[in-house]
Write a structure and sequence with these properties.
seven-stranded parallel β-sheet, 2 domains, 339 residues, P-loop_NTPase (chains A, B), GTPase_ArgK (chains A, B), Rossmann fold, kinase activity (chains A, B), homodimer
Chain lengths: 339, 339
C-alpha cells in the first residue's frame, strides 16, 4: 500500500482519455494493484470507467469476479443539512472499526470530476495518509442519465478494491435522492431542524426511499419537531406497513461532534441483516444490476442510431434500393448489421 | 382488370390487421394481381404496408423488382388554393394522354386512412369506373415521422402496379410541404391570388422545394400581383442561380375549367428531362431511398429500445452480474443479441 491512501486529485478535471491520446494501460495489472489497495490504481480505474474510455469494457470484465462484497450506503439530503460532516464522521467510525471505506461524492450540479471540490480537500485533511479510505468526487451533469451512467461503474471499482463499505453521497436536489437510493443497499436521508424538511420530505418522495432517517444538528432548536414531523409523515405512508417490513428509524446526530454516529451505524447493520433475512437485499442487488445492464444496452442502441444517420454504408444500400435489387427493409437490416 | 378501378373505400377507417386477426394472405399472388391493375389488390397491399402488418417485409421484398418506373409528382399548397380540383384536372389530362395514374392524398391532420374523406368521394365520381386510376387517402397523424413512414411504401405499391405517374397531394401545413418534396421527383407548389401566398411562400421555405409554381384561380383579381410576388421572391433566392440550373416556372391555371393544365404537364415533362440530363433525378432517387432506409433502421432500433425495458432476459442476466459471473457490458451485449 502507498502512503497516500487518497484517490483525491486536486486541480483541473481530467480530460477524457481519448483527448489525451492512447497510452498503454495494463488493465489486469491495474486491477491487481487496486485489489492490493493502491490508491493510484483505484483512481486510475475510476477515471477509465468515468471517461467511458475504450478500455471500459476490459476494465468491467476484469472487475466482475471481484465484486459483490461491498455494502453500499446512500446518503442524501438538502444542501446545508451536513452531509459532508456526516460522511466524515461515518468514515471515522467505520475506520475505527477497521473497515475499508470508499466514498463517492456525486455532485449533480457540477461538470467537474476527480476530486477538485472544496469538500474533498476538507475531508482529505481528516483522512490524509489513511490507506483504508478512498474518496472520489464525481460529476453527474452532462452524463447521460446522471448518476445512472458512471457511478455504478465507480462503485464496482471500489467494491473490487476491497472496500467493506462504499458511501455514495449526493445533494438531494431534483431526482438525485431517488437515483442514489436505486444504487444503495441502505439509504440514509439526512434532514436538519428548522428547515421544514419533515414536510418537504413527504412531498419529495424521500419517505419512499429512506431506510434510515438522520436528523442532524439535533442540538438545535426544532429538532424534536422535525423528528415528530418525520414520524407523522411516516405514519401516513403505506410502504412499511406489512408485518416483517422494515420500519425506518428516525435518529438524531450532531455529526460535527460525532454524536449519534455509532447508533446510525448500528441501525445500518440492523438494516443489512433485515435485507439478507427478508430477501430484499438480493432483490435490490438484482434490480440494480438489471438497471445497469438496461442503461448500457440503451446507450449502445442510441449510439447506433447516431451511426445510422450519415453512415457511408447507407449510400451504397440506397443505390441497390433504387435499382430494385433490394427493398428498404432488407437494406435497413443490412445497415444495422454493418454498424 | 376489374370494373371498379378505384382503390377508394368509404366508411370507417381500417383497423390494423393485427386487431382483425391474421388471415392467410398470398403476397406473390396479390402483387401479381396488382401488377395486372386489379384495384382491390392494390388497395389491399397499401393497407398491408400502411398498417405495418407482419407481412410488411414480405410485401416490400415482392414489390422491389417492379419499382423504379413511376414519376412522382408532389402537390402542395395552403388550404383553399384548389389542390383537389387541380389534382382532378391533372388526372383527367394524364388519362387523356393514356397514362396510368395513382393519387395519394395525404392529410397530416387526419388520423383516418383508406379513402373515407369527402374529397375522395368527389374525385371518385369523376374517375369512377376508370381502371387506370388508383386513388387513396392516407392519414399521417399518429404515424411516426408523419409522411416519412407509410407514404413511401404506398408509393412503391402504386409504382409496382404500373402507374406511370403518382401524384402525392398534401396540405401545405407545417412541415408537410417539405416532406412531400422529399418524396417527389417534381414538386408543384400551388398558390392562389389574394392570399398573400407569394410572401408566405418565401417565409415558409416553399421556394426551396418548388420545381413548378402554379397560380391557380388565375381568373381572379390579384393573379398578376401573385405571379409578380413569386418571381420577386424567387429572384432573392440563391438555389436556382447556377448555369444549367432549373429555374422553376410560374404558371397560371383555372383548374376548375381545366385551363392551363396541359402547360403544367408540359413543364413537368421538361423538368423530368432536366432531372435525367443533370443527374439531379438520380441524386433525388438515391437520397429518397437513403432516407427511407434510415427511417426503417431508426424505427427498428427504437423498437428494440422498447424491448430492452422490461425484457425477461434481463432478469437472468442481472443474476449473473450479481454473482460476478459476467459484467454489465457483456450482459448488455447478450441482451441486445437476444432481442
Amino acid at each position: 500500500m502507498t502512503p497516500d491512501g487518497l484517490a483525491v486529485r486536486t486541480g483541473a478535471p481530467v480530460a477524457p482519455l481519448g483527448r489525451r491520446g492512447r497510452r498503454h494501460v495494463d488493465v489486469p495489472d491495474l486491477v491487481a494493484r487496486a485489489r492490493d489497495g493502491e490508491a493510484r490504481a483505484v483512481a486510475r480505474l475510476i477515471s477509465l470507467v468515468e471517461d467511458a474510455s475504450p478500455l471500459l469494457r476490459e476494465v468491467a470484465a476484469a472487475l466482475a469476479p471481484h465484486t459483490g462484497r461491498a455494502q453500499v450506503l446512500g446518503l442524501t439530503g438538502a444542501p446545508g443539512v451536513g452531509k459532508s460532516t456526516t460522511t466524515t464522521a461515518l468514515v471515522r467510525a467505520l475506520r475505527a472499526a477497521g473497515r475499508r471505506v470508499g466514498v463517492l461524492a456525486v455532485d449533480p450540479s457540477s461538470p467537474f470530476s476527480g476530486g477538485a471540490l472544496l469538500g474533498d480537500r476538507v475531508r482529505m485533511q481528516d483522512h490524509a495518509g489513511d490507506p483504508g479510505v478512498f474518496i472520489r468526487s464525481m460529476a453527474s451533469r452532462g452524463h447521460l442519465g446522471g448518476l445512472a451512467w458512471a457511478t455504478p461503474q465507480a462503485l464496482r471499482v471500489l467494491d473490487a478494491a476491497g472496500c467493506d463499505v462504499v458511501l455514495v453521497e449526493t445533494v438531494g436536489v431534483g431526482q438525485s435522492e431517488l437515483e442514489v437510493a436505486s444504487l444503495a443497499d441502505t439509504t440514509l436521508v439526512l434532514v436538519a431542524p428548522g428547515m421544514g424538511d419533515g414536510i418537504q420530505a413527504a412531498k419529495a418522495g424521500i419517505l419512499e426511499v429512506a431506510d434510515v432517517f438522520v436528523v442532524n444538528k439535533a442540538d438545535r432548536d426544532g429538532a424534536d419537531e422535525t423528528v415528530r414531523d418525520l414520524r407523522y409523515a411516516q405514519s401516513l405512508g403505506g410502504r412499511h406497513a406489512g408485518p416483517g417490513a422494515w420500519r425506518p428509524p428516525v435518529l438524531r446526530t450532531v455529526a460535527a461532534r460525532d454524536e449519534g454516529v455509532d447508533r446510525v451505524l448500528a441501525e445500518v447493520g440492523a438494516h443489512r441483516r433485515w435485507l439478507e433475512a427478508s430477501g430484499e437485499g438480493a432483490r435490490r442487488r438484482a434490480e440494480r444490476a438489471a438497471r445497469e445492464i438496461e442503461a448500457i444496452a440503451l446507450a449502445g442502441l442510441r449510439e447506433r442510431m447516431g451511426e445510422v444517420r450519415g453512415s457511408a454504408a447507407l449510400a451504397a444500400l440506397a443505390g441497390e434500393v433504387v435499382a430494385g435489387e433490394t427493398d428498404p427493409y432488407r437494406a435497413a437490416d443490412r445497415l444495422l448489421a454493418s454498424l
